[in-house]
Specification:
single chain, alpha+beta, Transferase(Phosphotransferase), domain 1, six-stranded antiparallel beta sheet, 34% helix, globular
């Protein structure tokens, strides 16, 4: 086995290096703001896995705390629509933490949206799967706090709803944790943050995840976000104070679908759906609701014209 050379960053790891005397690295798969993911081979279980290691310097206390929190939370959760975390540890050369997860095929929802919006009938399966994951996570007393297209893996086509996975618990927190408030440092991805998360010291709960899922649904249906801004300050100001047009302004969706999505991203937590299952059920009902026939629409318009102008029939 190849010996692990001295290094300060996982990007220095060569193919063939063995982590924890068990995981032989193959190749990098991708990277984020503070971590990098490798394909690796588990020499004990003889299977291909994903290994996620921190890329920030090991002296970065906040990065290490976040990674350790992700490890503790993710290892405790087991659900078909959550990526399975198999273990983790610290790389001996530097003490850098790492996680070992199941290796998934397919693409993220974010990658899928690069090809354009998704039809409502197709989106229902994705929403159902993520709602199932969030229902389980919330029942376990965990708030994800970073629901976004990049953290939703769709899996290979044709596999079914169980291939849709919610990933990355790096900013998640347990409801018993005193840090479950909106701090002066915003964690998560700004475009998907619920308005209450922008108020320092404000209390937050599982409904911030439902808001984020609503933003994901809006983006998936229309190809654009409900709130935008040229600067972070402008974006957060729009989320906190502005109103947005319904999805039907940008895409051919029904008024019923409009109603569900707009309720999901309502500014006040009490105005939204209160559970992930309620949101997913309402969305499926709205998508499957029969559209008014052209005769009905025409008759309604005739009635409106007659009433407005008092025309004889």
């Amino acid at each position: 086995m190849m010996a692990l050379p001295p290094w300060k960053d996982p990007t220095d790891l060569p193919p063939g290096a063995v982590i924890g005397e068990r995981y032989r690295l193959d190749q990098p798969l991708g990277s984020g703001a503070s971590s990098r993911i490798y394909a690796a081979y588990d020499l004990v279980d003889e299977r291909v896995v994903a290994l996620k290691a921190v890329t920030l310097h090991d002296a970065d206390r906040l990065a290490r705390e976040r990674f350790e929190r992700e490890r503790r939370i993710a290892v405790s959760l087991r659900h078909p629509n959550l990526v399975e975390v198999l273990g983790g540890g610290w790389i001996e050369a530097t003490g850098t933490p790492y996680l070992v997860m199941e290796l998934l095929d397919g693409e993220s929802l974010g990658e899928r949206l690069l090809r354009g919006p998704i039809l409502p009938t197709h989106l229902t399966a994705y929403v159902d799967s993520i709602a199932d994951a969030l229902t389980y996570v919330h029942a376990a007393g965990v708030v994800h706090r970073d629901v976004k297209p990049g953290n939703i893996l769709l899996g290979p086509p044709g596999v079914g709803p169980r291939s849709v996975k919610l990933i990355d618990f790096g900013v998640s927190v347990h409801t018993s944790d005193p840090r479950l408030t909106a701090s002066q440092w915003v964690v998560g991805t700004p475009s998907y943050l619920a308005p209450e998360r922008l108020i320092p010291g404000g209390a937050i709960d599982h409904r911030v995840d439902l808001y984020s899922l609503g933003v994901v649904m809006y983006e998936a249906l229309t190809g654009q976000l409900p709130f935008t801004g040229e600067t972070p300050e402008a974006l957060t100001g729009a989320i906190a104070r502005s109103r947005t047009e319904p999805p039907s302004t940008h895409a051919p969706v029904s008024r019923q679908v409009d109603g569900v999505v707009m309720k999901a991203i309502a500014r006040g937590p009490d105005e939204r759906f209160q559970t992930a299952r309620d949101l997913a059920t309402a969305f499926r009902v709205a998508v499957n609701a029969p559209a008014p026939s052209s005769v009905d629409v025409r008759a309604t318009r005739d009635d409106e014209i007659t009433a407005k102008h008092k025309l004889p029939r």
